[in-house]
Amino acid sequence: MSEEFEVLDTPIKSESDKKEYKVIKLKNELVACLISDPSKISQGDDLPQLINENGTDDNEKSKSSEEKKAAAMLCIGVGSFSDPKDIQGMAHFLEHMVFMGSEKYPTENDFSSFVTKRGGTYNAFTMEERTCFFFDCLEKHLKETLDRFAQFFIAPLLDKEAMTRERQAVDSEFQMATVSDWCRREQLFVSLAKDDSPVNTFTYGNLKTLKDNIEDDKLHQAVHEFRERHYSAHRMTLAVQTRLSMQDIQDLVLECFSSVPNNSIPKDDFSFAVDTFDTPEFNRIYYIKPIDETIEMYLKWSVPPLYHKYKTKTLWYLGNVIGDESKGSLLSYLKKRVWATDLCFCADENSIYSIATCSINLTEEGSKHLFDIIDAVFSYINLVRKLGPQEYLFDDLKSISDNSFKFSTEVPAQYTVLRLEEPMHRYPPEHFLTGDNIHYEFDPDEIKTATDHLVPDKVNISIINKNLPDGLKFSKVEPWFRAEYIDLPITDDLKLKWDNIEPYDEFEIPAPNPYLTKDFDLLPEEANHPEYPQKIVSTDKYELWYRKDQKFKLPFANYNIYLISPLFIESPKNSALTELLTSLISFTLNEETYAANKANLYSYIYFYDKGITITVQGYNEKLPVLMDVIGNYIVNLMDYITEKMFLELKEQALKEQYNMIRSPYSLACDTHNKILINHNWTPIEKYNALLDLTYEDLLGYIDNYRKELYAKVLVQGNVTLDVATNAVQSFINVLQFDPLPEDKYPQTVVAKFPIGEKCLYLQSFNKQDSNSVVENYYQVGTYSLRDTVISDLLMLMMQEPSFDILRTKEQLGYSVFCSNRKTEGVLMFNISVTSQAHKFTTEHVDSRIEAFMKHSQKILEDTTDTDFQQIKNDYIKTKECVDLQLSEEFNKNWTEIYENTYMFDRAAKEVATAKEITLDEFRNWWDKHNHFGSRENFRKLSLQVEGHVQETNDDAKDETKDDTRVDELYGKPISLIYLGNNEENKKDDPEYYIEDIYEFREKLDSYPPKLLTRGP
């Protein structure tokens, strides 16, 4: 043992994992997992310790394209379970505060600025018993970034004035969560725990807990005391990954983290709370009114803690049996009656409890059979109990998990370190990588014990529905999220019935999985292998692009088939019908493909833009078989659907569209796209079309949609040319369509925003949502590679200052970001802010965004040639980051094919272009595209959606509103609510506000149409 550290056991790793691992315990007892990636560092790519202070390379030689990012994660063994009862949300608040400067780096946004400007990202999250911080960055900046990161835990400032501002951000985060039905339901659930339990707490924190209920001096003192008590090195784990040598990583970690203080105080002991849900409130039925249009059922059982019994994966085994979706399953039974669309059986575990949850998404018909559904759940559980643990099922799961681990794909460094967040606190070092993934031991006694807890006496039932059974009324309100609910006892008669209900004749436990892969052999490598996909088939029906994998060397393949027709986007009705069609295919197909999905053969069918995409991916051996199954279901869909099924899935589609309409952010984005794109149909338009849709409409559409199609196909992976061509040809033959004439290929026309500013000011449809959204779009023009690179550099320069000014300093809202957007060949950039209606008007937020844009002028004026060269260098290295797995490379290539651009070497061309751009060119470009420059090409559209001011918790009373729907819009035609033409909003420019998006778009000029053509 060294004086500075102790070496612990080395983690067991996958055969396909080329990285080296070493676990050490520092003298302050911080445990660190060091991960050295042996990939070759690019020629001329200096190691972190050889970088100048300004971040520029000592030796700018020609680079290869094999760049990778470095990453680090630090996790502390404290979370919201340790919140003081009088300052709830403390752990989450402290997580925010440590970002805001340290004694060594006192500038408030030093870390975020440093990371963001250097091509990195960062974030943090707080859980029940852990708080996790993480970042990634370009490797040459790792040393400086890691030093700044370590100061979070050595000597953070936790400045009092910064606290008074940052609690506004915490409150904004909470306000955004108040319209999440998941958050509302979970808050009610934890309130069922014993009053003195750490589980029964409000984890978010808001202005009530961090301002109104506590003096600033006391809060400031309490935050420091909480940090000193809990942020101790002996409760910290660290993971760092980079391409440095193991010795260099070790030296870096010791240098940066040896000074983290250790108070040696044991962590909080929660053993007293092990029976936290043994309360009268738990074993009841709760009816909860949702925000969204949704009907859901949750059955939860509190079982003895299994947190440290990870080798048997007991709840995972039960989840795979009870949550099965194949023939004879519980879900199959419910879907045949069109009572449900989805079912999941999962577990939530920590040191206090394990919660087993059966969640079911119900149809309207299902809402009329609530107790029939609960009967079915207990009938199936009784079957599982009666038959007992089945070793063949465990063996299937073990085989799948063993192969998944053996053939693990490489992931970005940030994801690698994040995957160690919980394992490093839960498992011994040798199982850091395997503990979550491997089924070690079959323990039938433990499975039986857990199954015996899934009984009526221990169940908590929640039903999420706006409509209550006759005679009931929402009578209670959860105090934090204001969720309305009513709770009823589970009668002894019901418990007796569920205890003794026999397994239904239709039920059977899963059969051995027929899709388990047997052949994992890799294809032999070939000389002169093409770098990019090649078009190997071109007919009037389809084009097939293909590339055999010789880089990732794993037994995987990806197939994408894109079916194109102008019929899909001809009208809102056709667009709604196409989405409904893909839902019906997936609904009927699922029973057949579920076993394949469990065996890591995945399939997806979805409608997007101009067509229907069929994706199959996973182990290559049986993918052609899966494609044949999908093709036959598509062609024979009429044999599987009924009018009842149509009506229920139509209702689900209505709810999905309606929920998007009620989201302020979605409303802003969707109306923007409506103005921009000729064939874009908004959720409002599709919702209105769905209202009148009939079963006959669907049948007629099914008869017609496959008559004329054109398909674009990409196949990549461990698959031969013959297998790829035969599988695709077979699929095309099964679909039996005629070729789509080229003059019928869909054309996209993008509107050109007028010079100057326009504003679309809308009212949010959700009266319970205080969140407002401002999305400012600045249209650049027809896409060119040079414009895109300049815009990318601009966003890289603006991202951190926009966050620092608009969020951290001005506290306009929790969500602030800027980004580039390419839409059908037209480039724009945008700045987005989500705020709350009771804090700021959208007009004020827009004015502050423009003030920031003016500030950006000064940022550019102050930028030196050296600064700009550093930004370009970091941008180039980011673009040169290598694809780590087949799916990354595949998705990039697919985007080129799908978007009809075919620039497979895009990244290399962006790098070459970036090297040519000068600071003067960059400034001139910016001058043309903003309000405070020459305005030569300043085209701005501000999308503003105003939220609704809510009663504060102090104003609101713990009583329900009248027992009607949250609004009366659902089920009726909907139109946009324009606010710009209100008298109080009049501007000097009478045409500033858009009063009708359809009339506005009709008056706009358009860019040249983007034609969909066959690939070169």
Automatic annotation (TrEMBL):
Ranges where the Peptidase M16 middle/third domain occurs: 405-689
Keywords: Hydrolase, Metal-binding, Metalloprotease, Protease, Zinc
InterPro entries for the chain: Metalloenz_LuxS/M16, Pept_M16_N, Pept_M16_Zn_BS, Peptidase_M16, Peptidase_M16_C, Peptidase_M16_M
Keyword Amino-acid biosynthesis (UniProt): no
Region entry Disordered, spans: 39-64
Molecular function via GO: metal ion binding; metalloendopeptidase activity
Domain named Peptidase M16 N-terminal: residues: 64-178
A Pfam family of this chain: Peptidase_M16_C
Domain named Peptidase M16 C-terminal: residues: 221-399, 692-873
Biological process according to GO: proteolysis
Domain of life: Eukaryota
PROSITE patterns for the chain: INSULINASE
PANTHER family for the chain: INSULIN-DEGRADING ENZYME-RELATED (PTHR43690:SF18), NARDILYSIN (PTHR43690)
Family to which the UniProt record says this protein belongs: Belongs to the peptidase M16 family.
Protein name: Nardilysin
